[in-house]
Design goal:
Domain Helicase ATP-binding: 133-309
Shape: elongated
EC number: 3.6.4.13
Distance between the termini: 29 Å
CATH topology of the largest domain: Rossmann fold
Subcellular location: Nucleus, Nucleolus
Region (Disordered): 1-39
Strand content: 5-15%
Mean pLDDT: 79
Structural class: alpha/beta
Protein name: ATP-dependent RNA helicase
Largest sheet: 7 strands, parallel
Number of domains: 2
Strand order of the largest sheet: 5-6-4-7-8-3-9
Number of strands: 16
């Protein structure tokens, strides 16, 4: 660990650290300066991502065009036959083998769409695309299940774009397709794909998400957004409170990551959204990694009777990607950071994502690693949206580097060429594990590795992973290869006031998160050695912290006192 000069007790907060460009090695300014606040500069961000929203026509022309649109809608079946002569009947695509050589050129896409596909560098469809796109082009409702990284974003965006094109949607016709996404990051990612797909189309597209300026979004909606990507809460807000939002002509609804939408508490919002949106002649598509009772209920509400169910994951298959090498390491709490530091140093030229259990843990370890000259990016839910967006795209574009994050980035996001997934704090359950490791080995020929840290008392978690068809190997790290920087770490935390406060916040939030685990038989907070846990945060003695964990709160405080006296 690099030595630092003495820091006085009344020192100022350290200046924002500069992130090192992983592509060129040059220094770049703090990522806060790369993207301004969305609520102040939504127009600039929208322009950057390629939004093309035109001014509205006068009322008389809008009424005239609306009549034309209604006429076109009545003729849509005849138009479909003319526009899509090469559509393959979905019954043909029963087995995964049938999709191996299915090419985009044979699907009968319009000229503008096909030009965009070529520019994006795609020629052959993935299994989920080959099985999903033909029935969607034919107007069927679809309930889809697929592995993460399988290409489902294109699977639902391509038919949506073709639908708007075939009906000759214009801005004054309002919104014809809505895509609902669970998180802002995933919505931005879908928006970026839509931008590329619609590069040669005249139809408009936009995005409404929490964290952006609501008034600016409302103005965009009033001008007419044909394809709208949205998060549930902000979409419901506009549906209820934005008078200029025209959605009566809605022709398709896409619900992406439906299980995740429900998991994070948007069940009531989804019920209200579906109730508000018109459902006459509306095509719907619902995608979910897992099929739960709640997902099935949402499907019944949103899809027409008799939807086509598409599952490209065989039941006998393992739960994670084929090209993923998975392992775990057993490590005492006081050695966890030392092992992580050694691992990251040794793999400095790789692209790595490290998962932690809480925002304060991400904040502390991000500040610490940057301070000791191991550059990292950090991503967590307490950051402003502009910061999260900037960090996400910076890491996506990097060839190598380290991102430390909470589970806010664990679901749905497509980050290219990730070499390692490190689960420094263990996941809550097997589903979270699968979602985390899904950030690597993506695509049809993806490769990647994952490493999970477990303490001896947490080994029971392996039984749950085995039951979920997750294959793991135990990795061993020679103790003489682990950097022994504990004394330097302790001195640094003692001398640096700001890092000391951050470490204390991280320690407290780690205990809080640990006590909130659902698998109480595996994650037992009373079995934690708090002295060893504190050492991993740079403390010789566990700091006194206040945490709220219900009835066990008192026993934790007693344990603190006992171990501080030892």
């Amino acid at each position: 660990m690099a030595k630092k000069s003495k820091v006085q007790k009344q020192q100022k907060a350290p200046a924002p650290l500069k992130k090192r460009s992983h592509d060129s090695g040059d220094d770049v300014s703090d990522t806060e300066n790369l993207v301004q606040e969305l609520d102040e500069d939504f127009d600039e961000v929208a322009q950057l991502l390629g939004e093309n929203v035109q001014d509205p026509e006068d009322k008389k022309k809008a009424i005239k065009d609306q009549k034309k649109l209604e006429k076109l809608q009545k003729q849509s079946e005849a138009q479909d036959a003319a526009i899509r002569p090469a559509v393959v009947a979905p019954e043909v695509l029963k087995d995964a083998d049938d999709t191996d050589n299915y090419e985009f050129e044979k699907a009968g896409f319009s000229g503008p769409t096909m030009a965009a596909i070529r520019e994006m560098g795609f020629s052959k469809m993935t299994a989920v695309q080959a099985k999903t796109i033909p029935p969607l082009l034919a107007g069927r409702d679809v309930l889809g299940a697929a592995k993460t990284g399988s290409g489902k974003t294109l699977a639902f965006l391509l038919p949506a774009v073709e639908l708007l094109y075939s009906l000759k949607f214009k801005p004054r016709n309002g919104t014809g397709v809505i895509v609902i996404s669970p998180t802002r990051e995933l919505a931005l990612q879908i928006f970026g794909v839509a931008r590329e797909l619609m590069a040669h189309h005249s139809q408009t597209f936009g995005i409404v998400i929490g964290g952006a300026n609501r008034r600016t979004e409302a103005e965009k909606l009033a001008k007419g957004v044909n394809l709208l990507i949205a998060t549930p809460g902000r979409l419901l807000d506009h549906l209820q409170n934005t008078p200029g939002f025209v959605f009566k002509n809605l022709k398709a609804l896409v619900i992406d990551e439906a299980d995740r939408i429900l998991e994070i508490g948007f069940e009531e919002e989804m019920k209200q959204i579906i109730k508000i949106l018109p459902n006459e002649d509306r095509q719907s598509m619902l995608f979910s990694a897992t099929q739960t009772t709640k997902v099935e209920d949402l499907a019944r509400m949103s899809l027409r009777p008799g939807p086509l169910y598409i599952n490209v994951v065989p039941e006998s298959d393992v739960s994670t990607a084929d090209g993923l090498e998975q392992g775990y390491v057993v490590c005492e709490s006081d050695k966890r950071f030392l092992l992580l530091f050694s691992f990251l140093k040794r793999n400095a030229k790789k692209k790595i994502i490290v998962f932690l259990s809480s925002c304060n843990c991400v904040k502390y370890f991000g500040e610490l690693l940057n301070y000791i000259d191991l550059p990292v990016l950090d991503l967590h839910g307490k950051q402003k949206q502009a910061k999260r967006t900037s960090t996400f795209f910076e890491f996506c574009n990097a060839k190598q580097g380290i991102l430390i994050c909470t589970d806010v980035a664990a679901r749905g996001l497509d980050i290219p060429a990730v070499d390692w997934i490190v689960q420094f704090d263990p996941p809550d359950d097997p589903r979270d594990y699968i979602h985390r490791v899904g950030r690597t080995a993506r695509g049809t020929s993806g490769k990647g590795k994952s490493l999970m840290f477990l303490t001896p008392s947490e080994l029971g978690f392996l039984r749950y992973l085995k039951a979920a068809n997750v294959p793991l190997n135990e990795y061993e790290f020679p103790t003489n290869k682990i950097a022994n920087v504990q004394s330097q770490l302790t001195k640094l935390i003692k001398s640096n006031y700001w890092l000391h406060q951050s470490a204390k916040d991280g320690y407290r939030s780690y205990l809080q998160a640990y006590s909130s685990h659902h698998l109480k038989t595996v994650y037992q907070i009373d079995k934690l050695d708090l002295v060893k846990v504190a050492k991993s945060f740079g403390f010789d003695i566990p700091p006194k912290v206040n945490i709220t964990i219900g009835a066990s709160g008192k026993s934790i405080e007693k344990k603190h006192k006992k171990q501080r006296r030892a």
